Amino acid sequence: MQDEEILREEIAEEARDDVVEEFDGDYPIEIEGLRNEFGNQVVHEDLSLRVQRGEILGVVGGSGSGKSVLMRSIIGLQIPAAGEVRVFGKNTIGAEPDEEAAVRSRWGVLFQGGALFSTLTVAENIEVPLKQFYPELSAELRHEIARYKVRMSGLPEDAAAKYPSQLSGGMRKRAGLARALALDPELLFLDEPTAGLDPIGAANFDNLTRDLADTLGLTVFLITHDLDTLYAICDRVAVLADKKVVAVGTIPELLELDHPWIQEYFGGPRSRAAQVTSTRAKAMDNAADGKA
Ligand SMILES: Nc1ncnc2c1ncn2[C@@H]1O[C@H](COP(=O)(O)OP(=O)(O)OP(=O)(O)O)[C@@H](O)[C@H]1O
Ligand SMILES: [Mg+2]
After folding, report:
1. Residue 43 Cβ contacting ligand 1 at under 6 Å
2. Are 240 and 67 in contact (CB under 8 A)?
3. In a mutational test of the pocket of ligand 1, which residue from 69, 221, 229, 243 has the highest number of ligand atoms less than 8 Å from its CB?
4. What's the confidence (pLDDT) of residue 1?
5. Residues 174 and 206 in one domain
């Protein structure tokens, strides 16, 4: 009992210390004139994009078109050759270290491939950012938060004590998501979260993403090849081609455009099949909710 009281007091204290102002602008991410190059290879040239607060923005483009590099430039892992990147209104390029850390604690990232530490358990993986950003937290509170994030990402409780190698691919993605949510971010970056999952696992992961975004009020930057994901959960889609974002909009809006890549991608048979699946799923949802 006493322990529980101490725990509650610590949480309250944390909350008092932690009066970070919440972002209330319209665009938590703003990119202007971005240029990225590796040697002679220009990956982005004069790329601009604004992500709206509260949306799930799907980011698509051919393999090698620079989706992951774009994400890395937003989160400061890739220093662009030119351009401006503002996250929560603050310039992330060349920011002061403490300013950068403050912004960094407000987003979570699920990297392509998961990138969990293989020598740490799932719970320990989730505790890494907690230790880094809140070193004063007691071990007990840290464990409690980690257990909570495990449940939140739909993993069974016993997954917390397992190592990544002891999990299925789908469970590893959820563990990565749990870690991305460790610091209660306002902004979530997901790079190909459903790649390698079977269609049911992928649909479950999509639903989890949508539910978390809605309940936690997240803004989500979601890189994906998965047409089902785009139809099922994305509010808008940004298309990366010709070294820039050539279009941003809902899928029907994109279909109006005559860009060859967009037409091939969204006008093809796989896209039509994904649309049928999504329409059917939404109709079933509405019927279940008594809305139909
Ligand atoms: N650190 C790096 N050094 C050199 N070249 C790089 C580096 N990172 C990315 N590239 C190159 O930049 C281009 C874009 O890579 P990126 O990983 O962003 O592609 P992507 O759109 O995410 O592709 P995929 O869909 O296959 O994940 C590729 O040609 C890649 O080889
Ligand atoms: Mg990539």
Report:
1. yes
2. yes
3. 69
4. 52
5. no
Query: Between 64 and 273, where is the model more confident?
Result: 64
Mutate to test the pocket of ligand 1, among 63, 67, 239, 242 (most ligand atoms within 8 A of CB): 67
Q: Are residues 37 and 166 in the same domain?
A: no
Where a domain ends, among 184, 200, 224? 184
Cα of 66 vs centre of ligand 1, distance in Å, is 5
Does 103 contact ligand 1 (Cβ within 6 A)? no
114 inside domain? no
17 Cα: distance to centroid of ligand 1 (angstroms) = 40
- Where residue 30 falls (left for φ over 0; alpha for ψ -120 to 50; beta otherwise) is beta
- Domain membership flag for residue 292: no
% of the chain surpassing 70 pLDDT: 92
Same domain for 178 and 71, yes or no, is no
Are 68 and 54 members of one domain?
Answer: yes
Residue 16 lies in a domain: no
Band (286; pLDDT cuts 50, 70, 90) = confident
Distance CA 141, CA 14 (A): 11
Same domain? 49 vs 147:
no
64 Cα: distance to centroid of ligand 2 (angstroms): 7
Q: Looking at ligand 1, which residue's alpha carbon is closest to its atom 7?
A: 38
Q: Which residues contact 28 (CB under 8 A, 6 or more apart)?
A: 51, 53, 87, 88, 186, 187, 219
One-letter amino acid identity for 292?
A
Domain, as residue range, for 155: 119-184
The total of structural domains in the chain comes to 2
Inter-CA distances, 64 with 68, 168, 175, 202, Å: 9, 27, 26, 23
* pTM listed for this prediction: 0.89
Distance 224 CA to ligand 2 centre (A): 9
Residues 95 and 160 in one domain: no
For the segment 116-122, the average pLDDT, to the nearest whole number, is 95
pLDDT at 112 over 90: no
Q: Is 69 in the pocket of ligand 1 (CB under 6 A)?
A: yes
Give the tens place of pLDDT for each residue, 77-86: 899 999 999 9
Q: Which of the pair, 287 or 229, is modelled with greater confidence?
A: 229
